[in-house]
């Protein structure tokens, strides 16, 4: 890691955690604890992280990537690629009256997600993978970092069932989506198709991390779908925050 990157990382840690919690994390890492509880800035409750995994890096991205302050009431949020629930917990702290549906397919992440969202009764955890149709899904890169799992359709039954965005909206009583967060490691290329307008026309803010580094063309598919809409874009740390005039 270059010196400038190290300085930026330390600055992010200080901004999100403060000195005492940075020291606590450092001790946990060096002592090889299994888990640690921290209270990041902007979170109403502690979050639980797995020491020695990508969880800490994920935490450092949340506020910089998903901080929004809409001028309208936020009632419905869908978090696609919920990982261990950090973004959902942050959004629930900021929008305590919003219904938040959090979708995460990978089993070990989902167990941690349930721990982290338990203090927030407005968060509904869903152990599925988002896809453009109902089917079985499989993880194609087992053994990678916990925040980088990629999914493909499986011809054989698997523990991971797919669910579409329209099905999520119908199942959880959402006529509109005030905030749609999407970080699904390239799975977005399946969602931005000719059927996307069924749900995209009902989204007010789309917070998305694109993954052209895995699958070329993800960005192109998104912006082809957005051609029908009036929108403006803010830049998060790792995300595009797209305000759609719906």
Automatic annotation (TrEMBL):
Q: Which UniProt keywords apply?
A: Methyltransferase, Transferase
* Methyltransferase FkbM domain boundaries: 79-219
An example molecular function term from Gene Ontology annotations: methyltransferase activity
Q: Which GO terms describe its biological process?
A: methylation
Domain of life from the UniProt record: Bacteria
Ubl conjugation as a keyword of this entry, yes or no, is no
Q: Say yes or no: keyword Transferase present.
A: yes
Identify the NCBIfam families for this entry.
fkbM_fam
Its protein name is FkbM family methyltransferase
């Amino acid at each position: 890691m270059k010196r400038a990157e190290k300085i930026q990382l330390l600055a992010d840690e200080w901004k999100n955690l403060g000195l005492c919690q940075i020291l606590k994390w450092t001790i946990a890492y060096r002592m090889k604890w299994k888990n640690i509880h921290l209270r990041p800035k902007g979170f109403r409750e502690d979050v639980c992280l797995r020491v020695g995994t990508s969880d800490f890096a994920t935490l450092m991205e949340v506020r910089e990537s998903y901080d929004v302050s809409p001028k309208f009431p936020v009632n419905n949020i869908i978090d696609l690629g919920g990982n261990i629930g950090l973004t959902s917990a942050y959004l629930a702290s900021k929008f305590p009256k919003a219904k938040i549906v959090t979708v995460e397919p990978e089993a070990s992440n989902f167990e941690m997600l349930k721990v982290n969202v338990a203090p927030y009764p407005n968060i509904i955890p869903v152990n599925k993978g988002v896809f453009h149709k109902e089917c079985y899904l499989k993880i194609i890169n087992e053994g990678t970092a916990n925040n980088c799992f990629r999914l493909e359709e499986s011809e054989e039954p698997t523990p991971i069932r797919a669910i579409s965005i329209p099905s999520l909206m119908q199942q959880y009583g959402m006529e509109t989506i005030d905030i749609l967060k999407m970080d699904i490691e390239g799975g977005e290329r399946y969602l931005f198709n000719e059927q996307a307008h069924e749900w995209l026309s009902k989204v007010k803010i789309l917070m998305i991390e694109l993954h052209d580094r895995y699958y070329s063309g993800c960005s192109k598919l998104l912006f082809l779908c957005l051609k029908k809409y009036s929108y403006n874009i803010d830049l998060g740390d790792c995300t595009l925050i797209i305000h759609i005039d719906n």
